[in-house]
Amino acid sequence: MAALDQVSFNVPAGACDCHHHVYDPSRWAYAPAAVLKPPPATIEDYRRYQARIGTSRSVVVTPSTYEFDNESSADFIRQQGSRAVGVAVVPADVDAGVLKTLHAAGFRGARINGTAAGNPITPDAMEPLARRIAPLGWHLQINFNAAQIVQHQETILKLPVTVVVDHMAGIPGQDGVKSPAYAALRRFIDAGKTWVKLSSPDANSSSGPPGYEDRVAIARALVTAAPERCVWASNWPFPSTNPANRPDAVLMLDIVKSWAPDETLRHRVLVENPEILYGFDPARRPKP
User: Fold this and answer.
1) Are 70 and 101 in contact (CB under 8 A)?
2) The CATH number of 18-281 is which of 3.20.20.140, 3.90.220.20, 3.30.1780.10, 1.10.4160.10?
3) What are the residue boundaries of the structural domains of the chain, listed by start?
4) In this predicted model, what pLDDT tens digit does every residue of 108-139 receive, in sequence order?
5) Which stretches within 18-86 are classed as H helix?
6) Could you say which of 88, 182, 196, 225 has the lowest number of CB atoms within 10 Å?
7) φ and ψ at residue 47, rounded to 5 degrees
8) Which of 230, 238, 247, 116 is nearest to 165 (CA)?
9) What's the pTM value of the predicted model, to 2 decimals?
């Protein structure tokens, strides 16, 4: 299948990509212990990607590659201004002063990774970290695989902060809505404290490209069940994917029409929900 040149639907003004990274080893050295060391994907590269897909806002997430160094993400926020916020990676015992500095720099959440070797902070940090970030109104973003979602669901339900689940909880496409992880995710959402990122349809898909039908079915079920708790994310530049199998970057947004065929619903997922979750100002939406 040829790569898409542009998104095939009208991308609404103020659309937000709720998860991407920046990698620039010429400016910020990768952590020596990092397992994932992808090629550069700079601020300028991301802006070109934004121009291609028609989004105007974004959430930059510090990758495990930089361990606890959030400066690459902070620099992105400085350059993007009100069009971006960040999600930091910090230790479970992070100092309150550090958190306040990050908040002033535009960060609105902290991420815990549980799905790959080399991650600097893991599931056992959920409770202590949640207590530290709660006074700032931050959310806890969790990047767990399906088994970890099930394993830690009781702890997640008790966390004193809003929770954001990455990449549709890593639910394998062949398991779909029958997965125990899907049931756990619905528990979180129904409890009124959890959001889910409709992202990485290529990951854990058995049906594969170009449609990723099995993972799209999971996204469609989530949007049907709780449209007010879903946001979209590209996961650009797809750092954990084998370069030979990297998904079509434009398709990652175009595929939204497969689970949100209605323009009003797409506006909610792409614009209104990110405004609520991340605090983007509706009055400052770019003009169409």
Assistant:
1) no
2) 3.20.20.140
3) 18-281
4) 999 998 876 678 888 999 999 999 999 999 99
5) 43-53, 71-80
6) 225
7) -60, -35
8) 230
9) 0.95
Contact 43, 76 (CB under 8 A): yes
Q: Give CA–CA dist 33/145, Å, rounded.
A: 22
- Cα gap 67→30, rounded to integer Å: 8
Tokens for 247? 């998904």
Q: Which residue has the tokens 């065929």?
A: 261
Residue type, 225: A
Tokens of 106: 């535009």
What is d(CA 75, CA 65) in angstroms, rounded to the nearest whole number? 16
Report which residue type is found at 123: P
The residue whose two tokens read 């974004």 is: 58
Backbone φ and ψ of 188, nearest 5°: -60, -50
Q: Report the C-alpha gap between 196 and 230 in whole angstroms.
A: 5
pLDDT, tens digit, 9 for 90 and up, residues 141-194:
999 999 999 999 999 999 999 999 999 999 999 999 999 999 999 999 999 999
Which residue, among 163, 120, 116, has the nearest Cα to 144 in the 3D structure? Answer: 116
Residue 276, token pair as written in the block: 């609520």
Nearest to 46 by CA among 67, 17, 69: 17
Instruction: List Cα–Cα distances, 58 to 62, 89, 130, 177, in angstroms.
Output: 13, 17, 23, 28
CB atoms within 10 A of CB 115: 19
∠ Cα 219 166 104 (to 5°)? 130
Residue 1 has pLDDT above 60, yes or no: no
CB 239 within 8 A of CB 63: yes
Look up tokens 């175009």; give the residue.
Answer: 254
∠205-49-142 over CA atoms, to 5°? 50
